[in-house]
Design goal:
Order of helices and strands: HH
Number of strands: 0
Radius of gyration: 29 Å
Largest sheet: none
Structural class: mainly alpha
Distance between the termini: 88 Å
Number of domains: 1
Shape: rod-shaped
Keywords: Coiled coil, Signal
Strand content: under 5%
Mean pLDDT: 90
Length: about 60
């Protein structure tokens, strides 16, 4: 009888450790919050990309491919 109790306790302990390990490794990832400097750099890149695209459109309209 003691052996059955010991096996049941070991099984319960192993199951608990498995659940804990799974929850630790499968955390939902939050998007990284940008600092003000990183946000400003990203905004600058976006504006430069948009400006280059607008320049290409203007050149096509003018016929200066």
């Amino acid at each position: 009888m003691r052996i059955l109790i010991a096996l049941a306790l070991m099984l319960a302990f192993t199951a608990c450790m498995g659940v804990i390990a799974w929850t630790v490794t499968h955390k939902p990832t939050k998007p990284k919050k940008l600092t003000r400097h990183e946000k400003a750099k990203q905004d600058t890149r976006d504006l430069e990309r948009e400006n280059a695209e607008l320049d290409r459109i203007i050149d096509k309209i003018r016929g200066n491919k």
